[in-house]
Amino acid sequence: MPGFFGIGQRGIRMAGTVMTGRVPAGVSEGRVPGEVRARIIVADVGGTYARLGWTDGRDADQVHDYRRYACADYPDLASILRDYAAGGTCQGAVIAIAGVLEGDRLINSNLPWAVSVEQTRQGAGLSWVQLINDFEAVANAMPMLAHDTLSPLTHVTESGANSPALVIGPGTGLGAALWMEGHPPRVLATEVGQASLAAGNALEMDVVRRLLRERGHLNNEHVLSGTGLMNLYRCLCELRGGTPVHADAGALVAAAESGDGLALETLQVFCGWLGSLVGDLAIIFGAKVVYLAGGVTAHIPTFLHDGHFLQRYLNKGVMTERLEQVPVWRVEHGQLGLLGAAAWYQQHRA
Predict the structure, then answer these.
(1) 160: exposed, middle or buried (C-beta count within 10 Å: 0-12, 13-18, 19+)?
(2) What is the CATH number of the domain that holds 189?
């Protein structure tokens, strides 16, 4: 069993209508019986979708009435919260969202609208709204996962310590946080996605040169994210004398699985580059265990496990021996943000 895992996953309940898409695996149906308590909305808001549920603060690993909203279909975050709260007694909201708060406003490059904390609270009709970093929430969810939601990416699966634990993942952007045990546990949120992208071989240097033609600052998200994957594909097409034919990441992954040469190379380079960054961060933070989450990783498990990630993760010179003792786990759970927001509420406001 890896680290602090082994707590049985009690999961997310659903009642009502899922706004778009399918209900996540493991979600049970039916409303929760018993006394009525004030409901707190918990939300995981990304560049594409906002996922919402509610908790009453009694059990951080119980989130009810899951719904998913397409962000582009709503004029602002308040409209999504207001729609979710309609007909219920919702007191406040804990929102896991990518970005950094500067006073009342969120700095984020991936959302379809600007976010003000106070305007969101007023527009949603709630007593209070708390924004937390999305990967701060993901890290808070780690202790609640069951072992069967984890797949090893390294040969070593045991660690002598549970903490610090690095949690990282590519989605619309790239997020990362550090979980440190304590009472309560502490989480260090980061903006790894905005840090400069580092090349580790001649091909990656060629990609960096081409991407720098289009921008003054090249960050990790420009390659190591869902949109970054397509940037990488276009660069490799240019380098190989090919023509881009796949319009989005889903089509690219499907093509790679079918044997398309350029698509396959793109996924291999992506996974290797991600492995290199994860290794760097594990060294920087002194991580004892790593958890790889994020929306992209759920769609490319075959490529993450084919050896390119591991080879670059371990290719750290004198630190290779150290990293050989740091397990990396791919997390197979789609609702970490909701669970983490509920855990944050229980720790800080319940």
Answers:
(1) exposed
(2) 3.40.367.20
Task: Tell me which DSSP letter residue 220 carries.
Answer: G
Q: Is-cis flag, bond preceding 152, omega within 30?
A: no
Polymer length in residues for the chain: 350
Per the domain annotation, does 307 fall within a domain?
A: yes
Copy the structure tokens of residue 82.
């207001």
Please write the tens of the pLDDT for every residue from 303-338: 999 999 999 999 999 999 999 999 999 998 778 889
Which residues are CB-neighbours of 212 under 8 A, at least 6 positions away? 218
Nearest C-alpha neighbor of 65 from the set 15, 5, 24: 15
Beta bridge partners of 132: 96
Q: Are 327 and 290 in contact (CB under 8 A)?
A: yes
Alpha carbon distance 209, 235 (integer Å)? 10
CB 221 within 8 Å of CB 193: yes
Q: What pTM did the predictor assign?
A: 0.83
Looking from the CA of 25 toward its CB, the CA atoms found within 13 Å total: 6
Hey, which residues does 53 pair with through a beta bridge?
42
Q: Compute and round to an integer the Cα radius of gyration of the chain.
A: 20
Residue 129: which of 154, 92, 79, 157 has the closest Cα?
92
Same domain assignment for residues 277 and 343? no
Helix (H/G/I), strand (E/B), else coil: 213: coil
Residue 8 lies in a domain: no
Report if residue 325 sits inside a domain: yes
> Which tens digits make up the pLDDT trace of 164-208?
999 999 988 899 999 999 888 899 999 899 999 999 999 999 999
276 and 215 part of one domain: yes
Could you tell me if 107 and 214 lie in one domain? no
Q: Which residue segment(s) compose the domain that 112 sits in?
A: 13-140+335-348
Classify residue 185: in a domain, yes or no: yes
DSSP 187: E
Contact call for residues 93 and 126 (beta carbons, < 8 A):
yes
Q: How many domains does the chain have?
A: 2
Task: Check residues 33 and 50 and name the one with the higher pLDDT.
Answer: 50
Closest residue by Cα to residue 137 from 63, 44, 39, 25: 44
Instruction: Over range 18-32, report the average pLDDT.
Output: 35
